[in-house]
Amino acid sequence: MYAMTITNKRPSLIKALSCACAALILGTGCTAVVASGAAVVGYMSLEEEANFTEQNYAVADYMIQQASTFIDRRRDLIIAQPLSDSLQPGMGSTISKMIPERVGIRLSQLGYRMDLSHVATAADTNYLKPATVAGEKPDFMLSGTYTRRRNEMDVNMRIVDMRSGRVVSVYDYILPLTREAKKLAQPKPKIVRLTDR
Fold it and tell me: Measured between alpha carbons, how far is 109 from 158 in angstroms, rounded to an integer?
């Protein structure tokens, strides 16, 4: 009789445990996407993050083919700067750092000396900062602009020789904007102090 009661109540027990687990996940602010099975990194799912990284690595591969005759892999230092929003130049966003960061990481993997301190979105990116001589100035700058549209973003990347001002590499491409990427591309509010005139 006792075993019969447990067996009859088992489906309701499983349901209660499932509800408790769901409440625990929602209550702790967990950002895992259960329906699709994709975990979320910041705002991007792992799949979106992989596609984003892969696209920007391809950008780095293309750009360095253009610039390799100008840049000495062992001696020259390339500094990465955040991209500028062409519609709101004074406003920054997370994605304005993420794009040159990923391109810079790839260039570092290819053996180029990169300074990513201005675009690092995570503490572990700092390991890529090369050893520099005191007072060493960068020789080249990786930078660019972007323009947000409804479902995509135009990205214009360039590498400039800081000694001569010559552009040694250019690459323009379109980045699809998912809902999550749109959030990352939103300008961050900037507090401006007004002074009495």
Answer: 19
Query: What is the predicted pLDDT for the residue at 7?
Result: 43
pTM of this structure: 0.69
The phi and psi torsions of 38 (rounded to 5 degrees) equal: -105, 125
**What is the rounded CA–CA span in Å between residue 128 and residue 120?**
10
Cβ contact 112:64 at 8 Å:
yes
Which residue ranges of the chain lie beneath pLDDT 50?
1-11, 13-14, 16-42
Which residues, in sequence order, are CB contacts of 24 under 8 Å at separation 6+?
none
CB atoms within 10 A of CB 196: 3
Q: How far apart are CA 22 and CA 16, in angstroms?
A: 10
Task: State residue 168 phi and psi, 5-degree precision.
Answer: -105, -10
3-class secondary-structure state, position 53:
helix
Residue 168's pLDDT is what? Answer: 97
* Rounded distance between C-alpha atoms, residue 171 and residue 153, angstroms: 14
**What pLDDT is recorded for position 20?**
46
Q: Does domain 44-185 have CATH number 3.40.1550?
A: no
